Structure formats: C-alpha cells, structure tokens
User: Which sequence fits this backbone?
C-alpha cells in the first residue's frame, strides 16, 4: 500500500512510518521541520527511517498548495494519515492564529487533495482535548464536544467537522482518531513525561501545575500506531474513534513511576493550575474495540520503563 504521512518526521509520525515500513508499505512523509521543538530531532527521526528502509521525503508545508499537489501527484497515495499540526494546548493560547492556520486551513488543503486524488482512506489525527472541560468520564465519542477550552482543541474539532463534510459530500472514507496523551521514545520534548524525565535526570525542579491529582489517560505510542493501522485496514466510511489506554494516572503517580524507572528522586514544585489544562482525560475505547479491534497492550508502568530505557540511552 502507498501511504502518505503528513507530519511524518514528528513523534507519532516516526513510529507510524517505521511500522508501515515493516509492513512493506511504500511510505512517503511530508513535513516542514518547523521549530515548535528542535528540528534536529525531526531530522534524526528521518535519518533513522531512511536507514530502516525505503522512504520518500517531501520537505514541504501543508499550507503550500503547489508542493502538496506535487506530493500527491508523485506518490498517488492509497492512504493518507494526516498528523501534521501545531500540537500543544498551552502554546495555542499564545498564538491562536498560527494554530488555526496550520491545523484548520492545512487540513482543508489535505482534504482538497484527497477530493482530487481519491485515496481509499484518509485518517485525521485528532485529540482528546476536544472533550474540553467535561468531567463526565470516561469520554465517549457520543459526548457533546461543543466546549473546547483551548484554541488547539477548537482547531482539532474544526478539523473533525471538515472531515465530516468531505466524507459526505465527496464520498471519501475518513476516520478521525482522537489520541489520548501519547508517550514513548522520541516523544515531543515539551510534553510532561519527557520534560519531567529530563528534569529528574538533571536534578531540576519539576513544575507540578495544580495539586497533582489531575488525571490523564496516557497511551503508549505503539498502541496508537496499532490503532492507526487497524483503522486503515477496516477503513470505515466516516467515524470518530477514541484511541486511549482507558486507564488514568494522576500527575503525582506519573512522577512516582518516572522516579522508579529512572532510579532517581524528583524535586516537585507546586504551581497554580494552567489555563487550558483539563483536570481529567479518560477514554472509553469500546467503539475502537468493536469497530477496528483496537486493544492497547502496554500499561503505563511498562510504557514508562520503556521510555526511561530510551531516555537513559539517548542522554
Ligand atoms: N502526542 C500526543 O499526545 C497527541 C495527542 C493528541 C493528538 N495529537 C496529534 O497527533 C499529531 C502528531 O503529534 P506529535 O505528538 O507526533 O507531534 P509532532 O509535533 O512531533 O509532529 C507533528 C509534525 O508535523 C509537522 N508540521 C507542523 N506543521 C506543519 C506544516 N505546516 N506543514 C508540514 N508539516 C508540519 C512538524 O514539523 C512535526 O514534525 C498532531 O496532529 C497532534 O495534534 C498528538
């Protein structure tokens, strides 16, 4: 299968592209190597992919129609996995226009290409953030999602709605996958697990926003990749599907897991809660189980050990 992964040089994109290579797909990635975090890490991801197997690389912006068309024209993808985005809740509060541009207009650009080049499947990387401030858990795909609490969340919801319009108006097969806090080797450096681990290793204080009882559904990246591949195989007409681990961990327990896995004590500094942060995320994954046979297999303790093994090797 010919697969085009946008944002393929990033954290999830790397792991997806590697799995697709293992499955003998013809993998192309498109990424603009932006500076949201150190692009050297993204270049390293691409080098590692190139060493693993064949890979076509488009260094291009999803806002650049001409380059996007060139990628579609040359690769004629049978599947598109659209992961390119400005990620991160807190920075989106500082720069909403940038988020809207890349995450909404960029997604429309991808959907327009899909309308013209007609891949058999199109997957959109959405986010648990669309559930907003809702405290009714676990989050189900049938819950209302009209109250995002960050521009990032609003752009992801907008992306889902746009995907729906293209599915119904242009008979495309599109699935929107709502990822719940993804972690693992090569995780974005500004995300909590990665940042905390570095601070523990460097004996710096860990900023704990709130009282540490906020809870997240942390999902190991290999499980997310398995969910993406399963969605590609089943290829529903139009669906929104949660991909999480379906267990929650408090911030304080997360730090304790990291301390244990890294063999080092953390120094905690309690700070006021941050705007845009959700108190809890927790995925109901019944639909994913039923529809695409999704079964996450890496519990947080094992996943954190694997992450720690990577960061100790990488630092
Ligand atoms: N990591 C998570 O916990 C998580 C949770 C929910 C949703 N998501 C979504 O999954 C996707 C991948 O996330 P990630 O954690 O791997 O992030 P990432 O930042 O590592 O990957 C995104 C990639 O997209 C690229 N990109 C950004 N803007 C681009 C543009 N205009 N043109 C071309 N490429 C561009 C970046 O350079 C980056 O390599 C994103 O859409 C994100 O919103 C991630």
Assistant:
């Amino acid at each position: 299968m010919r697969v085009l992964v946008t944002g393929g040089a990033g954290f999830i994109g790397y792991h997806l592209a590697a799995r697709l290579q293992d499955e003998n797909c013809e993998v192309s990635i498109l990424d603009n190597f932006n500076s949201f975090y150190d692009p050297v890490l993204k270049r390293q991801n691409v080098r590692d992919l190139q060493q693993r197997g064949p890979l076509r690389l488009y260094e291009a912006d999803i806002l650049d129609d001409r380059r996007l068309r060139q990628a579609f024209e040359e690769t004629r993808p049978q599947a598109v996995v659209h992961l390119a985005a400005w990620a991160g809740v807190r920075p989106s509060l500082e720069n909403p226009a940038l988020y809207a541009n890349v995450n909404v207009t960029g997604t429309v650009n991808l959907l327009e290409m899909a309308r013209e080049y007609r891949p058999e499947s199109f997957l959109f990387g959405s986010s648990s953030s669309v559930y907003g401030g809702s405290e009714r858990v676990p989050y189900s795909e049938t819950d209302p999602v009209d109250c995002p609490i960050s521009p990032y969340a609003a752009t992801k919801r907008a992306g889902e709605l746009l995907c729906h319009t293209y599915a119904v108006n242009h008979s495309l097969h599109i699935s929107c996958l709502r990822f719940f806090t993804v972690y693992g080797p090569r995780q974005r450096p500004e995300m909590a697990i990665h940042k905390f681990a570095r601070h523990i290793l460097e004996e710096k204080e860990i900023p704990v926003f709130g009282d540490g009882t906020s809870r997240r559904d942390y999902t190991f990246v290999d499980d997310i990749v398995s969910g993406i591949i399963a969605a590609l195989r089943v290829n529903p007409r139009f669906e929104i599907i949660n991909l999480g681990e379906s267990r929650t961990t408090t911030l304080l327990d997360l730090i304790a897991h990291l301390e244990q896995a890294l063999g080092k004590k953390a120094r905690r500094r309690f700070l006021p809660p941050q705007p845009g942060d959700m108190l809890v995320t927790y995925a109901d994954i019944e639909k994913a189980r039923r529809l695409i046979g999704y079964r996450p297999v890496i519990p947080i303790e094992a996943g954190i050990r694997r992450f720690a093994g990577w960061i100790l090797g990488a630092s």
